[in-house]
Amino acid sequence: MLMLPKSELSAFVAELMADRRVIAPVERDTELRFDVVEDPEQVNLAYRNTGKTPKAVFFPQVETLIRFARERDRFDRIEAVPLDTTPTVLLGVRPCDARSFLFLDRIFAQGRYLDPYYLARRQHTMVVSLACDHPRQTCFCHAFESGPYDRAGADILMREAGDAYLVEAITERGAELLDGMSLATADAGHLARAKEIEENAVSRLQPMAPIAGIESALAELFDSGLWAEVSEKCLACGTCTYVCPACHCFNIEDKLYARDGERVRAWDSCMYPTFTLHASGHNPRPDQAARWRQRMMHKFEYLPRNVDAYGCVGCGRCILSCPVRLDIRQVIARVQAEACKVKA
Fold first, then answer.
1. How many Cβ atoms are within 10 Å of 332's Cβ, its own excluded?
2. Would you place residue 178 in the very low, low, confident or very high pLDDT band (cuts 50, 70, 90)?
């Protein structure tokens, strides 16, 4: 186990920046978010979690897929957008977000159809996780057999140890990176302090029933009246989907300009009334109850069936960001309770 004194964090970041792009929590427009580091002093690891998910590093909110130019009244000159293969370190990601990357891999980087844009960024990015020493009351990662010190999805894990971070390689390429760094071996005092902080962090998590098996419960509740009750105060603003590290629905649009154009992919939300609106005017999900049912079914029944993973990591961002405080944990509890009634 290696140790990085907090007083040497900037020097550590500067060393990473020597031959890599570093993306870490920095303040931009009064908001702490993951962005490209321009100065090592900008990096802020003293945070609970960012309001926006770092999934945009691999799956940008808006990205151009191709460009085309006009020639003789035809948009027939196609120009491919170069793939982003810049060597990158994603520093300070919380374990829930790191685990969400493994989920996104199942969507964009596995199976029959592969997304070259996502793959290029993912393959050239090293993930350095920062264990969550102070979980919020809205966190529920433990319901997914995870926790604030989960190593899944990380190449390197950093842990709070008072005036230093403990640094541990999780993968081979993480070990290769650390081999070239001038880090000291952790001493007994910092190891003991890190253990104490971890125990305190785990004790902060609110009790919650495990998620495992909820897909069977949902299968019985497609026509349940609970969806109308759950969605009654929903504003259909889509905020929950835009802050979610696992939501991955997108729209593709061709934009035409005076002399050229581009094909753009942008995040979309199943909470919007027009998300499933057909050209005929028919909408198979005509109300917010149907859309909330879809959100829950997709995350907790369809995805486990199709990619063997839940579409949620328990980060709690949707709870914090919802303007009417619609709590997905309460919806999950309702689903589990209603399923018990159906079986009875």
1. 22
2. very high
What's the rounded Cα separation, in Å, for the pair 214 and 229?
A: 19
Q: How far apart are CA 209 and CA 43, in angstroms?
A: 36
Residue 341 has pLDDT above 80, yes or no: no
Q: What is the distance between the alpha carbons of residues 44 and 31, in angstroms, rounded to a whole number? A: 12
Assign 199 to helix, strand or coil.
Answer: helix
Q: How far apart are CA 106 and CA 49, in angstroms?
A: 24
**CA pseudo-torsion sign 146, 148, 150, 153:** positive
Kindly report, residue by residue over 61-116, the tens digit of the pLDDT. 999 999 988 776 666 788 899 999 999 999 999 999 999 999 999 999 998 999 99
**In whole angstroms, what separates CA 90 from the centre of its chain?**
13
Q: What helix, strand, coil percent values describe the chain, rounded to 5?
A: 35, 20, 40
Bridge-based pairing of strands 88-93 and 21-28 is parallel
Amino acid identity of residue 340, one-letter, is: C
Q: Is the whole model's pTM more than 0.90, yes or no?
A: yes
Q: Taking the alpha carbons of 187, 188, 189, 193 in that order, is the dihedral positive or negative? A: positive
Q: How many CB atoms lie within 10 A of CB 205?
A: 19
Cβ atoms of 134 and 188 closer than 8 Å: no
One-letter identity of residue 98: A
Is 219's pLDDT higher than 90?
Answer: no
Distance CA 7, CA 26 (A): 17
User: What are the backbone angles phi and psi of residue 310, rounded to the nearest 5°?
Assistant: -80, 150
**If DSSP codes are grouped into helix, strand and coil, which group holds residue 139?**
coil
How many residues appear in the chain? 344
pLDDT-derived band at 324, boundaries 50, 70, 90: very high
CA distance 172 to 154: 11
